[in-house]
C-alpha cells in the first residue's frame, strides 16, 4: 500500500483563525498526526504559512478540505514523503 | 453544546465577541431606561389600572426587541458581507466553502438575537413585579416601586459588567450608570411630576 507520510505545504490564509487554531484544526482532522506551522510572511489581511504534516497515512483531500474550511488557499506542495508498504 | 461551540468559533474568527457584548450592554441599557421611564411616568400620573401599565410596558419591550433584532441584523449583514468581499479580494479566492462565509451568514443572526433579546429580557425582569401582582400574588412592596428598584439594580449591574470588561473599578462604573438612571428619573419627575 502506498501511503503519504509527510507533506510540506505553502498555504495562504486570513489572519483569523490564527496559526494555533489552524494547526489544531489540521491536527484534529488527521489521526496520529504531527502538524507544524511556520508563519513565513504577514500581510495586511493574510499570512503565508509553511505547513508540515506528518502521519501514518495522510489523506490529502482531508487536509485540503480543512484548509478551505479555515478560509485558506493551498499555493503549492513543497515536499512529499511517500512510502510503499507491504499490505498486512 | 456543539451549536454553542460553533457560534463561539464563528464569533472568534470574525472577532465579533466585542460587538455582541457592546450591543448587549447598549440595548440592555436602552431597555432598562425605557422601562424605568415608563414606570416612573405611570408612578407620577394619576392612578392607572395595572393591566394598562403592563400592556404599555410590554408593548414598548416588544418594540425594543424587534427593533434591536432588525436593526442589528440589517447593519451586521451588510458589514459581514463587505468584510467577506474584502477578504476574498485579499485571498484572490472565492471563500463560499469556508467558515468565513458561514460566519458572514450566521454572525448577523447571533448578534441580532443578542441585540433584540437584551432589552426584551431586561424589560421582562423589570416588569416581573407588575406581572406577579397582576397574577394575584401580593408583594410586600407596591409593584411599581419594586419595578423601579429592579430597574436601578439592573442599570447598576450593567455598569458593573462594563467595569469588569474594561478593567476599571466595577463600583465606579456601576455608580456612573446608576447616576445616569437617577438623572433620567429626576428629568422625568420635572417634566411629568405634579
UniProtKB/TrEMBL annotation, chain A:
<dbReference type="InterPro" id="IPR023129">
    <property type="entry name" value="MTH889-like_dom_sf"/>
</dbReference>
<protein>
    <recommendedName>
        <fullName>DUF211 domain-containing protein</fullName>
    </recommendedName>
</protein>
<dbReference type="InterPro" id="IPR003831">
    <property type="entry name" value="DUF211"/>
</dbReference>
<dbReference type="Pfam" id="PF02680">
    <property type="entry name" value="DUF211"/>
</dbReference>
From TrEMBL, chain B:
<feature type="transmembrane region" description="Helical">
    <location>
        <begin position="175"/>
        <end position="192"/>
    </location>
</feature>
<keyword id="KW-0812">Transmembrane</keyword>
<feature type="transmembrane region" description="Helical">
    <location>
        <begin position="24"/>
        <end position="46"/>
    </location>
</feature>
<feature type="transmembrane region" description="Helical">
    <location>
        <begin position="52"/>
        <end position="74"/>
    </location>
</feature>
<keyword id="KW-0472">Membrane</keyword>
<protein>
    <submittedName>
        <fullName>TIGR00267 family protein</fullName>
    </submittedName>
</protein>
<feature type="transmembrane region" description="Helical">
    <location>
        <begin position="144"/>
        <end position="163"/>
    </location>
</feature>
<keyword id="KW-1133">Transmembrane helix</keyword>
<feature type="transmembrane region" description="Helical">
    <location>
        <begin position="106"/>
        <end position="132"/>
    </location>
</feature>
Amino acid at each position: 500500500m502506498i501511503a503519504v507520510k509527510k507533506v510540506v505545504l505553502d498555504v495562504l490564509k486570513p489572519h483569523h483563525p490564527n496559526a494555533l487554531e489552524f494547526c489544531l484544526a489540521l491536527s484534529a482532522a488527521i489521526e496520529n498526526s504531527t502538524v507544524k506551522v511556520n508563519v513565513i510572511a504577514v500581510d495586511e489581511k493574510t499570512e503565508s504559512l509553511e505547513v508540515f504534516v506528518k502521519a501514518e497515512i495522510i489523506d490529502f483531500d482531508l487536509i485540503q478540505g480543512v484548509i478551505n474550511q479555515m478560509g485558506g488557499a493551498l499555493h503549492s506542495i513543497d515536499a512529499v514523503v511517500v512510502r510503499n508498504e507491504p499490505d498486512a | 453544546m456543539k451549536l454553542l461551540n460553533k457560534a463561539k468559533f464563528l464569533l472568534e474568527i470574525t472577532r465579533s465577541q466585542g460587538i455582541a457584548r457592546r450591543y448587549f450592554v447598549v440595548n440592555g441599557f436602552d431597555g432598562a431606561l425605557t422601562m424605568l421611564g415608563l414606570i416612573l411616568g405611570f408612578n407620577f400620573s394619576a392612578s392607572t389600572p395595572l393591566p394598562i401599565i403592563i400592556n404599555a410596558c410590554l408593548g414598548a419591550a416588544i418594540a425594543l426587541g424587534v427593533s434591536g433584532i432588525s436593526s442589528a441584523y440589517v447593519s451586521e449583514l451588510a458589514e459581514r458581507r463587505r468584510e467577506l468581499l474584502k477578504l476574498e479580494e485579499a485571498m484572490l479566492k472565492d471563500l463560499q466553502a469556508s467558515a468565513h462565509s458561514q460566519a458572514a451568514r450566521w454572525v448577523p443572526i447571533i448578534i441580532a438575537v443578542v441585540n433584540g433579546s437584551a432589552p426584551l429580557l431586561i424589560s421582562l425582569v423589570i416588569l416581573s413585579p407588575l406581572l406577579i401582582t397582576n397574577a394575584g400574588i401580593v408583594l410586600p412592596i407596591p409593584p411599581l416601586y419594586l419595578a423601579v428598584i429592579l430597574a436601578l439594580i439592573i442599570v447598576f449591574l450593567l455598569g458593573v459588567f462594563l467595569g469588569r470588561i474594561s478593567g476599571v473599578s466595577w463600583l465606579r462604573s456601576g455608580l456612573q450608570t446608576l447616576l445616569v438612571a437617577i438623572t433620567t428619573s429626576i428629568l422625568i419627575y420635572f417634566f411629568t411630576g405634579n
